[in-house]
Amino acid sequence: MTAGAPVSRLDTLGRGRLASTFVELCRIESPSRHERACAERVRSELAALALEVEEDDAGAHTGSDCGNLLARIPAHPQAGTAPSGRSVMLCAHLDTVPLGAPVEPVLVDGGWENAGEGILGADNKAAVAVLLTLARHITAHGAPVDVELLFTVAEEISLAGSLAFDASRLRSDFGFVFDHATPIGEVIVSSPTHFRIDARLRGAAAHAGIQPEQGRSAILAASRAIASMRLGRLDAQTTANIGTVAGGSAINVVPETCVLSGEVRSLVPEAAERVVAEMVDRVHEAANLPDCDCDVDISVQRTFAGYNLSTADEPVRVAFAALSECGYRPEAVRSGGGSDANALIAQGFPTVNLANGTERPHEPGERVSVAALEGMFDVALALLGHAAAPVAGAAR
Prior knowledge:
alpha+beta, Aminopeptidase, Alpha-Beta Plaits, 2 domains, 9-stranded mixed sheet
């Protein structure tokens, strides 16, 4: 993905502080809806730089113990140059998926990993560490644009935090999110529309050994429904999945209830809607089978909308220019994943999601290389320079 051998703009002290900040953040457990401790660490770092931090009421909407944090750093360009009058937003999320075990980051072959069995939390602590390091850098050395730093909560729960954030509070021309676990250089120009499906099936309980004929198994109905669904990658744009199934009370009781939850994603919204309708039909059909005969309650929610960006859009062109300057080969990519960019774009705020170089997210083997951490910082800094003036040829 690199066009050359990128050399970090951070000095030795800066590289050390970036690494130590990342390690400290990873040690702070912040699974979705429990981000307060991590948020307070971020707040204290920014307060030490004399930056005011605003917290919104997203916690009340998401069930989190914390809201989204927003801080602003005014432009302070080098001597002899005037402020550009422009502003750029940079975003990272504070939460992680459940860790599974305590985190103790260790360096292995030039990359950070968890010494234990749980995930590392580089998604998205790597980006949080980069933004804090950037804040220290530009408060000391200046920047040609105003900078807004947004730290969201509950991103791992279908973008709940950013969906609850009021994007009209932002003063920036556009923004960037660092939340795609692929090599630095990828620019996400397309992201899917996402639907959540929850179904509760209700049959009748009975003793499984004495009178099973009088029972109606909700688990049997659910299994018939799932077996009849098209799941996995359905085509180049669309995926479907049943992620959780729960039901029953004991091995000697015909299960009266079963609950299943799943999702559908597609870069083509109409395709997602068709697959959702098909999955709902499969649940009803299975529930109505003679040997199942269950009642069904189904809810469908469009959790976030997809988007398609043009390489002519100014923030995309700024991203390409910044990546090229830092020695990376930019590549426009269509992704099956969602990010806070989806929620912000849906509110009309132009946002681009950039690859952050992390590897194997949500897995015990999650890691991020030292080079990727430093490269992410370099790209973030370069974004500010290229955003200072409209990029030639960009659509406004």
